[in-house]
Design brief:
Elements: H1 5-19, H2 21-28, E1 36-37, E2 40-41, H3 42-46, H4 48-67, H5 70-100, H6 102-105, H7 108-132, H8 138-165
Antiparallel strand pairs: 1-2
Helix pairs in contact: 1-2, 4-5, 4-8, 5-7, 7-8
């Protein structure tokens, strides 16, 4: 019987955790969500809206670039504003989770996710503020910020996914499972 590379990698990671008292101490801390509705973590549910609106804002900017129609300029203001406001809501929930749950707070990956998300909020807030006050032209500045927002949403989402899938953050598994 031969072991696959994945099995060997997992065995090596498990052995490293058993040998390292710091990793053991981190893994013993609770990672259950502090803010949940019917067992479902709210932060994981709330992040979909700002991510979708960030991507939509970039798409809207592309349409505005090709058509020049003022309608798409107005839609971009609403889309970027929705992304920012929904992002602030998701960020507040995520911040409470980060500060309230010891198992989340103890992991460096959680802080990387939080920093990437705060940079994303700064980018989409600047994008919305510039559009709202008309101090920024959509082309090229708004489009550049929209593209940067998409990149940062991908980075923050990747770190968030690693927290869920690799570290089990926010998962509430019943004893039956």
């Amino acid at each position: 019987m031969t072991d696959t590379a994945e099995d060997l990698s997992h065995a090596h990671e498990t052995q490293g955790a058993a040998d390292n008292p710091v990793i053991q101490a981190v893994e013993e801390k609770s990672t259950e969500s502090a803010i949940a509705f019917a067992g479902h973590p709210l932060h994981a549910m709330a992040v979909h809206f700002p991510i979708a609106l960030v991507v939509c804002t970039f798409g809207i900017d592309l349409i505005y670039w090709f058509t020049g129609d003022a309608f798409w300029h107005r839609v971009g203001v609403w889309s970027s504003g929705g992304a920012f406001l929904a992002g602030v809501g998701a960020g507040l929930i995520g911040t409470v989770e980060l500060l309230a749950v010891p198992g989340i707070r103890a992991r460096a990956a959680s802080w990387a996710h939080a920093i990437a998300a705060m940079v994303l909020l700064a980018i989409i807030g600047t994008n919305w503020g510039g559009r709202l006050t008309e101090r920024m032209d959509v082309l090229p500045h708004g489009m550049i910020l929209s593209l940067l927002g998409c990149v940062m949403a991908g980075l923050a989402g990747w770190h968030g996914g690693k927290l869920i899938f690799d570290h089990g953050i926010g998962l509430m598994v019943s004893p039956k499972d």
